[in-house]
Write a structure and sequence with these properties.
Blueprint lengths: L1 H14 L5 H9 L1 H4 L3 H17 L1 E4 L7 H13 L14 E5 L3 E2 L6 E2 L1 E4 L3 E5 H9 L7 H12 L15 H17 L3 H6 L8 H14 L1 H7 L1 H11 L8
Parallel strand pairs: 1-2, 2-6
Antiparallel strand pairs: 3-4, 5-6
Helix pairs in contact: 1-4, 2-5, 4-5, 5-7, 7-10, 11-12
Pfam family, one: Peptidase_M90
Organism: Pyxidicoccus fallax
Protein name: Zinc-dependent peptidase
Length: 243
């Protein structure tokens, strides 16, 4: 019943016209939108408006949620599922945004982002903008945290999201496991492409690999081609070729 209600709500939201003023925020803040092919823009904008209206955005640390924040953060989330489906975000209820780095009761020190198992993503607005402003440095806090949400869509933060076909799981486990172990061992090719934080566990490896897939695709395709191909098959993107 919940899935039927959600489907009807999304269909209703998708029928609403896209606010034209939102395009200005995308043009100003989201570099990948400016280079997106015309054929992808329509499904991207359709999913963006549904995500932006469906999820609850909450300002924290004195931040007030504006249309700019709602649209730009939604764009970072929807980039990951343009070729997938919004159902990957079914368990995500709210996006909490701080103005800058923040502290959490269960973490030591300040953090830039966090995905919680109960359906929340917490982000630093400053980190979101920094990740977008430097689109090829391999660091994108929002993409990292929303990758965790995709990972969690099948029930666990384990580095394996819900794949397109059952037959894909064996190759995924083999390729991801191999490169995770190589990163843990400090091998040069992996370290040229992936941040060391990805060696912490399989979930962080998937999130870090997602950042690099979208931000350093040419390097990933050259240095770790099997990893690139596996992520390309899942996400449906070929960012190294600009598609």
């Amino acid at each position: 019943m919940i899935s039927v209600i959600r489907h009807l709500k999304r269909r209703s939201l998708s029928r609403r016209p896209f606010p034209q003023e939102w395009l200005g925020h995308l043009d100003a803040r989201v570099p990948f939108f400016r280079t997106m092919s015309p054929t992808l823009r329509e499904p991207f904008l359709d999913k963006l408006k549904v995500f932006a209206w469906e999820k609850e955005f909450i300002g924290a640390g004195g931040l007030t949620i504006t249309d700019e924040i709602r649209v730009v953060v939604s764009a970072t989330a929807v980039q990951l599922v343009v070729h997938l489906d919004l159902s990957y975000y079914d368990a995500l209820r709210e996006v909490i945004v701080y103005p800058s780095a923040f502290k959490l009761p269960d973490r030591t020190g300040a953090v830039l982002g966090e995905a919680k198992h109960w359906g929340s993503v917490i982000l630093s607005w400053q980190a979101v903008l920094t990740g977008l402003h430097n689109p090829d440095d391999g660091h994108d806090t929002a993409a990292h945290e929303f990758a965790h949400v995709l990972d969690r869509a099948d029930g666990a933060f384990d580095g394996t999201p819900k794949l397109r076909q059952y037959s894909h799981y064996q190759t995924w486990a083999s390729v991801m496991g191999e490169h995770f172990q190589k990163l843990q061992a400090g091998q040069r090719r992996e370290r040229q492409v992936l941040d060391d934080y990805g060696s912490l566990n399989e979930a962080e490896f998937f999130a870090v690999a997602t950042e690099s897939f979208f931000e350093k695709p040419v390097q990933m395709r050259e240095k770790t081609p099997e990893l690139y191909e596996e992520l390309k098959r899942f996400y449906g993107w070929d960012p190294a070729s600009g598609t």
